[in-house]
């Protein structure tokens, strides 16, 4: 499980390093960061017929979470 704040910070640093004029394929780093937070903050799941909102880490098996974890680990190394 990756820490959300650390992962977002690593994502921003990664994007800044690889951006042209603070943009990635036309999207600003701020927009990508906001979308990343949206994905992390709106993950819900059902357990024993009750709905829960995930408040730590990211969704298991999510392609975005796997990519974000790789960016975080790249920065951490």
From TrEMBL:
It comes from Rotaria socialis. This is Reverse transcriptase domain-containing protein.
